[in-house]
Structure formats: structure tokens, C-alpha cells
């Protein structure tokens, strides 16, 4: 992401950082620069957009049984992709695959391919920490650090050794997170003194401060009031001009308002009555909500089942 006022020296530093990070992750430079979309498996629409992620027969298991299986679709660059479906259908499990957060769960096992700019994130030699630097995440509950507002934003850039004026980095991230005007006069105060909505936007700004390529949001508005939710949604619409966003939500209206593509998941039972998530339908959001191709999707988005 862009953190600082653009100058030629800073551009060069960012390009050098991009090259180094891409090499460590294993991402091809031509892909980062905008190579053609990755050819993905059948099962979802392939439009003219560039695919930043390609999911091929992805299955995630906790122990011997799969939590979600048979996932096949692409996630477009500079688009908002919504994952919807009932509780327990594997939405959060899947989104955590996209930056290898599931690696932190000892019993988790990921099969299939998660392609990022055409490269398998679970391939040999890929550094999961470097992946998470490029693919940031915002969680359901705001989780600011017990530090000042300023230090919350500066934490990531300091750890990564990012160059440049830290004051400018912090200001730019807070402006990108649409919270600067509300906190610019109290940057040294503790972030716990902010409202819930402000804290969530602070967490988004903290994510943006380290210049990720993708933002993952796992039910970012579920704990917020309607006004704060509206601000987060407006922010997402602005951010997709520069970033790709994947959001898990139980709010059908929210998915319809902000997303470009929607994947509907459901829960299936096997012969042993074990529950696992499956993708029923993936398509343009407008089609999912107005003319879905599967009666199960229609039943869910219209509220007949939940």
C-alpha cells in the first residue's frame, strides 16, 4: 500500500522493498507488476479482471475431518470479494488460508493450491511471515495494542525497518484509515480511549501502514453500531481503488452494498454426520442477490433459511 508522500527517492526505496519481499515470498516480479490473470479451475466466472488469488480444490482440515473442502474460484485485483453463508460453513477458515494464519493452529492442514499472483503460498520455501506482511488482516473484534494511537501505527513500520519520516507514515496511514481528523490532536493518548468504531478504523490503518497488497477482513463490523459500520463500508469502497479486499460477513445487506463478487458457502453432512463447508455458488454480487443460479443461494439471501 502507499504510506508516504510520493517522491522519486521514496519510489525507489519502495520498489527495492517490493523486489526483496517478492523474492522472499517467491512471487514473480512480472506477476506483481500486472501479469495476465492466472488460469483457474472451473466453477466460477472468469472475467477480464486480473486474478490476485486463485483457489484450486482447497480443503482445510482440523484433525482428520475437513472443515471446508472443494473450493475453486478466483479473487480479483482491486475488487471486494464477500464470503457469505451460515455459521460453521468455513468462511473464516478459508480467509485465514489466504495469509497462512491457519499455520498457527497445530491441527490445521491445508490441501489444494492457494495461488497468489500465480505462486502457491503453501509451496516449498515460502516464508509465512513474509506472506502476512503482504497480505494483512483485520479481525472481528478491534484489537489495538495497549499503546498510544501513534505507536499503534508506527509499530509495524518500525519492526520492518521501513525507511522514511515516521510522522508522515503515521499520518498517511491514519488518513487512509479515515480516522486522522478524529485523532490528530491526541496521537499520544492510549488507543483504548477510542470508540469501538474508531478502534476498528485504527486497526485498518495499522494494517495499511506496512503497505500490504491485500486486506482480509473477518466480520469487521459485527461488533459495531450502524453509523460506525457505514464508515467502515465507505472506507472499503475507497480502499479498493488501491487494494484488493476479501471480507467475511453475515450481513447480507453489507455484502450487497460493498462487494463486487460473492461466494456463498453452505454446510453439508457426510455419511458420519460430520459437518463441512462447501461453496455453492460464486458470481457477481448483483447476480447472487438478484438472480442466483442455485435454489440454496436464493433461500439464504432472501432469508428463507439461515
Number of strands: 10
Shape: globular
Structural class per helix/strand content?
alpha/beta
Figure out the total of helices.
12
Helix content: 25-40%
How would you sum up this structure in a few lines?
By secondary structure, the protein is an alpha/beta fold.
Provide a descriptive summary of the structure in words.
Helix 6 (166-176) crosses helix 8 (196-208). A hairpin with a 2-residue loop joins strand 1 and strand 2. It is built from twelve helices and ten strands. The chain is globular and about 60 Å long. The relative contact order is 0.17. The strands form two sheets. A six-stranded mixed sheet has the order 6-7-8-3-9-10, sandwiched between helices. With 306 residues, the protein is α/β, with parallel strands linked by helices. The model is unreliable at 1-24 and 26-48 (pLDDT under 50). Helices cover 37% and strands 24% of the residues.
For this entry, give a set of tags.
single chain, 306 residues, alpha/beta, 6-stranded mixed sheet, 12 helices, 37% helix, 24% strand, globular, disordered N terminus
